[in-house]
Specification:
Diaminopimelate Epimerase, Chain A, domain 1; 18-stranded mixed β-sheet; 18 strands; 2 domains; alpha+beta
C-alpha cells in the first residue's frame, strides 16, 4: 500500500492561489533522506511530513533542498488535511511537535488559526550586497531569528521588485522579507519573501515570515490584530494577532490533489 499524500493551497479560499504544500501522511518514523527525496520530487516550497505521536502529531518540513525549522503554510495545510480526512474531529485542536517546539492549529469560524512563536526583527546594519540584490534602498533593515526584514517606502516598491536571487542567496540568512504599509484600506501591510538559499526564489505566502512581520507592524501601527497580504504572483491573505510572545496566524486552505507515494 502506498503512502497518502495530499496537495493543498494554503492561505487562500481559491484553488491555484496562495501557497501550495504537499502533506505526506506517515504511519511512523521515516528516513530523513527519503523525506528529502520526496520533497525534491514534489518540487514545492515545502512538503510536510505528519506522523501520529503520543499527544498529537510529529511534523517536519522540507524544501526541495533542505529541512527547515519553521513553516507556516505547510503547518496550516497539514492541519487542514487532518480535519478533512477525519483523522481529527472538526472541534479538535491539531497539536504538532516540531523543531520549533509545540505548535497548534484550531478551526475558528471557517479559518485555521495557527499558534506560532513570535520572532521579532531587531534593527541591524544592512548586510553587504542587500541593496544591490534588491535593487532598492530600504528605510529599515532588521534581523529576526531566521531572516532579514527590509521595509520599503511603498507598496508599489514592494510589488515592483525584481531581485537578483544569486546575490540574495549569499546574504547568510534563510531569506529576506520585504514589506511596506498597504495602500489598500482593507489591509494593514504587504510583503514578499525571497529564500533562494533554501531553494525557493520567491515563496508565494509565508506564514513563518509573519512571526516577524506581526510584531514589526503591530508596534508601528499600534495594533494587535492586523490584516496582511503577500503580494507574490499567486498572492495570499492572512489575519495575524499578537498574543504575548506568540503570534496567531489565520488563513484558509483548499485541497487540489490527493494520491499515494509508491516509492
Amino acid at each position: 500500500m502506498g503512502v497518502p499524500i495530499v496537495q493543498v493551497d494554503a492561505f487562500t479560499a481559491e484553488a491555484f492561489r496562495g501557497n501550495p504544500a504537499a502533506v505526506c501522511l506517515l504511519s511512523g518514523e521515516s528516513d530523513p533522506r527519503w523525506m528529502q527525496d520526496v520533497a525534491r520530487e514534489m518540487n514545492l516550497a515545502e512538503t510536510a511530513f505528519v506522523r501520529p505521536d503520543t499527544d498529537g502529531y510529529g511534523l517536519r518540513w522540507f524544501t526541495p533542498t533542505l529541512e527547515v525549522d519553521l513553516c507556516g503554510h505547510a503547518t496550516l495545510a497539514a492541519a487542514h488535511v487532518l480535519w478533512e480526512t477525519g483523522r481529527l474531529a472538526p472541534d479538535a485542536v491539531a497539536r504538532f511537535d516540531t523543531r520549533s517546539g509545540r505548535l497548534t492549529a484550531a478551526l475558528r469560524d471557517g479559518w485555521i488559526e495557527l499558534d506560532f512563536p513570535a520572532t521579532p526583527a531587531e534593527e541591524a546594519p544592512s548586510p553587504a550586497g542587500l541593496e544591490e540584490a534588491l535593487g532598492a534602498v530600504p528605510r529599515f533593515v532588521g534581523r529576526s531569528r531566521f531572516d532579514y526584514l527590509a521595509e520599503l517606502d511603498s507598496e508599489a516598491a514592494v510589488r515592483e521588485l525584481r531581485p537578483d536571487f544569486r546575490r540574495l542567496s549569499a546574504l547568510g540568512a534563510r531569506g529576506v522579507i520585504v514589506t511596506a504599509r498597504s495602500e489598500h484600506p482593507d489591509d494593514d501591510f504587504v510583503s514578499r519573501f525571497f529564500a533562494p538559499g533554501a531553494g525557493i526564489d520567491e515563496d508565494p505566502v509565508t506564514g513563518s515570515a509573519h512571526c516577524a512581520l506581526a510584531p514589526f507592524w503591530g508596534a508601528r501601527l499600534g495594533k494587535n490584530a492586523l490584516a496582511a497580504r503577500q503580494v507574490s504572483p499567486r498572492g495570499g491573505f492572512l489575519k495575524v494577532r499578537l498574543d504575548g510572545d506568540r503570534v496567531r496566524i489565520a488563513g484558509q486552505a483548499v485541497t487540489v490533489m490527493t494520491g499515494e507515494l509508491l516509492a
